[in-house]
Write a structure and sequence with these properties.
By secondary structure, the protein is mainly α. The chain is built from 4 helices and 3 strands.
């Protein structure tokens, strides 16, 4: 469920929803077309979509969420991505894809100030 900031705008993680939407659109524009996208950008786009409540399941764990994931679910997905990056036996998708998901969700959660 989204939380509103002090100005009444809905947040995704700790970020204003409008900022996450804008970041998603900017990344999507850079990688327009499947031949332009990298595994990293695909992972980041998937992470943003899930954070915005548009994904069916979490990109790494496959966990379901009714509507938009809250901060604890977002953080759990960041943790799951870190675990898969550390232990290659847990990896089911390319490393760069996982790194993209992790970077996007870490930014959404406020763990990192760099936007992928």
């Amino acid at each position: 469920m989204y939380k509103a900031d002090s100005h009444g705008e809905q947040n995704v993680g700790i970020r204003p929803r409008s900022e996450v939407e804008e970041t998603y659109r900017a990344l999507e524009a850079v990688g327009a077309g499947t031949t332009q996208q990298t595994q990293f950008s695909r992972g980041a786009l998937t992470g943003y979509l899930w954070a915005l409540g548009r994904g069916d399941a979490a990109p790494i764990t496959g966990a379901g969420a009714d509507g938009s994931p809250d901060l604890s679910l977002l953080t759990a997905e960041v943790d799951a991505s870190a675990a898969q990056l550390e232990d290659s036996t847990q990896r089911t998708v390319p490393r760069d894809y996982i790194q993209g998901v992790q970077a996007a969700l870490a930014w959404v959660c406020g763990h990192d100030d760099a936007r992928p």
